[in-house]
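Input for the complex:
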Amino acid sequence: MKIKRELGLIVVLVIFNVLCALKEPNYISPRNIDSILLWMPLLLVAAIGQFPVIVARGIDISVGSILGLSAITTGVLLKTHPNLSLLALFVIGALVGIILGCINGLLIAFGKIPAVVATIGTLTLYRGLTFMVSGGDQIDASTIPDKLTALANSGWTFKEVTVSWLLIIGITFAIIAACATRFAQFYRNVFAYGSNPDAAYLRGISPTMVQMVCYGASGLMGGIAGIMFLSRFGNASPSSAGSGFELVVIASVAIGGVKITGGSGSVLGVFLGCLLLSCINVALTALKFNADWQQLIYGITILIALIIDSASQIRRTRSAA
Amino acid sequence: MIRITSLLVLSTLVMVSCTSGGSNNEPTTSANTASNGKPSGDAGARLKVVFIPKDTANPYFKPVGMGIDEAKDSMNFDYKEQGPATADPTSQISVIKDQIQQKVDVIIIAANAPNTLNEVLDDARKQGIIVLTVDADLTGNESHRDAGILPTDFAKVGQSQLEIMAKQMNYEGEFAILSATTSASNQNTWIATIKDGLKDPKYSKMKLVDTVYGNDEPQKSSTEMEGLLSKYPNLKGVLSPTSVGLAAAAQVLQNSGLYPTGTKAKNGGIHLTGLSTPNQLKKYVTKGVIEGFQLWSPKDMGTLAAYLGTSAKRKKIDLKFGTEVDGPKGKLKLDDKGVVYAGDLLTFDKTNIDKFDF
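Predicted:
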């Protein structure tokens, strides 16, 4: 039953890519595939963080600003401490992310503020902080150490196609999360809470605990994505780093078949959703669409993916009934 | 109860972020206040010139200040820089009031907003203070200052960018433009100038194969640059007249190894140029990923402002809109809004980039 849903997404992916390759043979050139594979990692990491949040009937809209603040804070530290190790950079980003995520969690779990409202608030708040932390300056390329950017431009190369270290990091997180959804008590609680909060409460699952951990985890992954942003782009500006990213993350989770009303979804689905969005974004460029049309086509493609998904869901519910 | 408290906390936090630093409008002095009490105003007396940047932290305005500072001895004035801590629309008002009280002779200001300073600047001018804007003008309120100095004539940027691209490509081969958004008017003007300029016979062997838009987002700009590299195997040049696009393109080009001295360069490699501040691209110029790129010179704006301000105060020139005045290097034309241009674009390359810090 569950597998079927991901199968549908795989079919969409294959059809999409075949159509693109037929229209523009260059779409499957190694350089273009590299471009798709570089599109994925940041999105995947943040989407894995967003996944339990949405399963638990919440949403984290602030993730774009969390990414930005993590990237900028780490960049500012790099200006004065250029010799920080790679591990230290990721730890700093993760810490920034956890703190911001926990603030979200506090507002939602204890303040009882609806998640949409709370994270719209912190989206602006955290963005404001990026300007304060950086004094409005951007983090220049010379601040970012080569060993960090190397994670984006090296990795495992098969026949001219490079699977960057960033993507390997992203996939590792995905595998960990996929295993955890099967075996970790936390994910069981998240699914139970998302399916029926009242029943979950009666079974002794603390809603505040579930929410705190969900938003903390989303913040953590957003923070890590911030370091990956520095690696991928080699610079960061307080205004643009991660700006608008939250919508891509939420779209990829939704396309990945995670029910926006909570209670169901899978990491494999999220992974496929990220892959499809990455393909779409690169296809817009590779197929030489007119720039004025790109957003429209992007929106239509996302809607088609969502409609196919919900249609297959309705059919499944009918056949089950 | 908890709910109300946290709502309060959230709203306070949001307010703090919105007005970030707004409560911190204490002006901060950051230069020598070497006023020695001499009477001012007469020709030959040492004048007092103050520069008010958008805020004290913005590195872009440091060279503007340097340009003014370096002229102080030859033009006989005392210089100080006095900016607000934050670039709020109203943060400069109290700074200007202070300067009026201190009886400065010339105020050079990069306005944070075109419409919030009218009254206080009128007060200043009633006291005989010459008010000049640099870089950020009082668009729509030009009558509240004596003249506006803009970095460069934007109409000439396109031609200048085409020429540096052409030089790097040795006037032949395919090139593409990586722009900001399809609705950015400066970008569109420059692109139109470039297309027009290509009709010149000296560019006859060059071909503009594509114009793509990175929306001034790092992600989109990188994907577009990667797309250019994969779509056009014979590409010899990329021109990105926007700093976000250029920085993203530089990183992509570096990773690809296709730049002229890169490991995978074919037929001389791909040349990348455009518009950006030097600090953003220093690393790539040092590594040879980018040979040279351009921007206007903030320092020249400062020098010109110092000249116009002190000369007008000494009544050597009259800053009347729509007239020609004597400039430091020949005649200068004030247009009918009182705008003058400081100079041509500067080219940054290996030989000079270390001299700039903005």
